[in-house]
Write a structure and sequence with these properties.
The protein is mainly α. The protein has one domain: Orthogonal Bundle (Recoverin, domain 1), CATH 1.10.238. The protein is 63% helix and 3% strand. It has seven helices and two strands, in the order ααβααβααα. The protein has helices spanning 2-8, 17-27, 44-58, 63-76, 85-96, 100-124, 130-137; strands spanning 38-39, 83-84. A two-stranded antiparallel ribbon has the order 1-2. Helix 1 (2-8) packs across helix 5, helix 3 (44-58) packs across helix 4 and helix 4 (63-76) packs across helix 5.
Length: 147
């Protein structure tokens, strides 16, 4: 966590540790991959993935607003050739103005609680496949729940 916070501090003075932890948990295994731990703003497919994924599903942004936010964060981080995904998402959340990163941390905690509830329900229903559980618990939340 300290490495992520240190990277975020290059762009903002206040770092909400709970929000960083929530983003790390949200990203999960993507942070382990050699390429997936970074965001490439020059790759249109990657930008679309961020806009359609984190921005739309977690921040509740429409495509136009999300694209503008991604562009602004990309511009802010342009000196960094390797843009850490956690830092990028943290700055996106702050840029989105959804009550800042504190609100993001709270939103992701609620999302995690919902994931755990779904997982327990799947256990009770006898679903044994970890893959099915992962897919069902990682389904996007309706943006109305994020408001």
């Amino acid at each position: 966590m300290a490495d992520y916070a240190a990277d975020i501090k290059k762009y903002t003075s206040n770092v909400n540790a709970a929000a960083v932890e929530s983003i790390v948990k949200f990203c999960g295994i993507a942070l382990k991959g050699k390429d997936s731990q970074w965001v490439s703003v020059t790759d249109p497919a990657e930008v679309k993935r961020v806009v359609d994924g984190f921005c739309a599903k977690k921040l509740g942004l429409d495509a136009k607003t999300a694209e503008a936010a991604v562009k602004a964060v990309g511009e802010k981080m342009k000196a960094d050739k390797t843009k850490q995904r956690v830092t990028f998402y943290y700055l996106l959340a702050a840029k989105a103005g959804k009550g800042g990163t504190t609100a993001l941390g709270e939103c992701l905690k609620q999302y995690e609680a919902l994931e755990q509830l779904i997982s327990r329900m799947l256990d009770k229903a006898g679903v044994k496949s970890e893959f099915v559980k992962l897919v069902l618990t990682r389904m996007p939340l309706p943006t109305s729940l994020l408001a």
